Amino acid sequence: MNKIGFDGGHSIYELGPAPDVVLFFDCVKIYAEWDHPEQDWSLLTDRLYRRYLRREELKPALLLMGQVRQLFVQRPAKSSIEWEAKVLANSEKSGLNPEQPTLAEVFSKYFEHFASACGSAESFVDAFNIYQPVRVVISDLPGFARDKNKPLAEYDALEGEPFWLRSWR
Questions:
Q1: Residue 164's CB: how many other CB atoms inside 10 A?
Q2: What is residue 142's predicted lDDT score, i.e. its pLDDT?
Q3: Cβ neighbours of 131 (radius 10 Å)
Q4: Per-residue model confidence as pLDDT tens digits over 15-68
Q5: Residue 132 Cα distances to 6, 96, 119, angstroms
Q6: Each residue of 73-121: pLDDT tens digit?
Q7: CA-CA distance, 52 to 133, in Å (whole number)?
Q8: What are residue 4's DSSP bridge partners?
Q9: Of 23, 75, 107, 160, which has the fewest Cβ atoms less than 10 A away?
Q10: Number of H helices, E strands in the chain
Q11: Contact 121, 132 (CB under 8 A)
Q12: Cβ(134)–Cβ(117) under 8 Å?
């Protein structure tokens, strides 16, 4: 079972199994991108989900993630997700609690860890003058080591599923 996390700077912030992370991004697509098409959500739904965030994208992505959190506050957890089909039927142990009142509370760790990964990336630049991009990664050591050494050009050219999800399936 691969655990997935946000990587940024010098730290990995574990989120949970791949199906949980996929569900988070599915909710971002449904409740942010589809419900609010007037806004460009691609920093989260493409750059973060599939690739990585460039340094100049950190602040705009943090603002977007804050908007997602506010949208999730308005969504009751019980009626927003088909828990039986999406999480409870999955063979991997979910770290999500469908008993929380809102999606914002179900995914609170995701919002906190994303902010921490962005902060870690910025502090790494401050300390070493090197930007280590914020991205979604496999957080176990073998998977992380493999993906950490991939050139960013491979992420830029990526079409289809992200690397972290390909390893899971």
A1: 24
A2: 72
A3: 17
A4: 999 999 999 999 999 999 999 999 999 999 999 999 999 999 999 999 999 999
A5: 12, 28, 11
A6: 999 998 888 876 666 556 568 889 989 999 999 999 999 999 999 999 9
A7: 6
A8: 16, 138
A9: 160
A10: 11, 3
A11: yes
A12: yes
- How many Å apart are CA 82 and CA 102, to the nearest integer? 14
pLDDT tens digits, 59-77: 999 999 999 999 999 999 9
Cβ atoms 103, 8 nearer than 8 A: no
**Helices assigned H by DSSP within 29-96:** 42, 49-50, 58-73, 77-80, 83
Structure tokens at 114: 């994303």
Instruction: Give the list of residues 6+ apart from residue 168 with CB closer than 8 angstroms, or none.
Output: 2, 4, 18, 138
The full set of domain ranges for the chain reads 3-166
d(CA 4, CA 143): 10
Can you tell me the distance from the alpha carbon of 146 to that of 40, in angstroms, rounded to the nearest whole number?
Answer: 31
* The overall pTM is greater than 0.90: yes
Judge whether 7 and 14 are in contact, CB under 8 Å. Answer: no
Integer Cα distance of 23 and 95 in angstroms = 12
If you compute the radius of gyration of the chain from its CA atoms, what whole number of angstroms results? Answer: 15
